[in-house]
Predict the 3D structure of the following.
Amino acid sequence: MSSAFQSARYAAARAIALEAGRHARACFEQREQLVIEYKGVQDVVSIADRDVEALVRARVASRFPDDRFLGEESAALVQETTTERTARAQWVVDPIDGTSCFLHGMYAWCVSIAVVIDGEAAIGVVYDPNADELFHAEKNGGAWIDLHAAQAHPERRALQVAQAASAADGVLGVGISHRVSSTPFLAFVERWLARGGMFVRNGSGALMLAYTAAGRLIGYYEPHMHAWDAVAGIVLVTEAGGATNAFLADDGLVRGNAVIAANVRVFGELNADIEAAAFLSV
């Protein structure tokens, strides 16, 4: 049983994700008119990202004014203004994870909302407004998917990670960015292929973590993710019976971290290949 403190935020996160997804989808349908900025190599942002984040932040502030907020598009500002505040709950939000896909008319993007409570990842919500699928989980409450989530009577099903026994039993999701060296990542891919494994990258780490929780992928690996991309998916995978690395360790909420997620059996193979590839690449 979750506490009333956690349950209130879990219900709010689901409702806010649906509202944010509807707004993002409306922007997606008019994406040719959006103003686009480049934050770095292969790192773009549009007015839609900022508008959706502002919506989420306003909803959180109105319901839980004492909670902290960390969003991708306002991360530096929020960290500066809340450093000295103490709060049990911190919302961690990516308004549109997969912005490049969003701007180029591809459907691999989503709204990602997580809540860290008392220093632990406690709530994860990932909403895909294109498929109208709401993936959600809370600590000790299991993981679920609401199909036709925006309709009056969505269909809710439990999530469970894939029952794969080895790398060859499914497809692994992967991600890579220009923030890290590609050398150990490419060495890992070679080792994974040698095991008989295969991989896919769709442009949204949060969505691929949700797919891992749903058993559609056997796991997910990315050498570095920001917290707003990763925390919601980590809650989903864990509550769906999977294993993950300790993302929040070593100040992962602020600095980001690697993400390794899979079912318990595949996690060992995955982690071994990652460690071996890193060692051989030194």
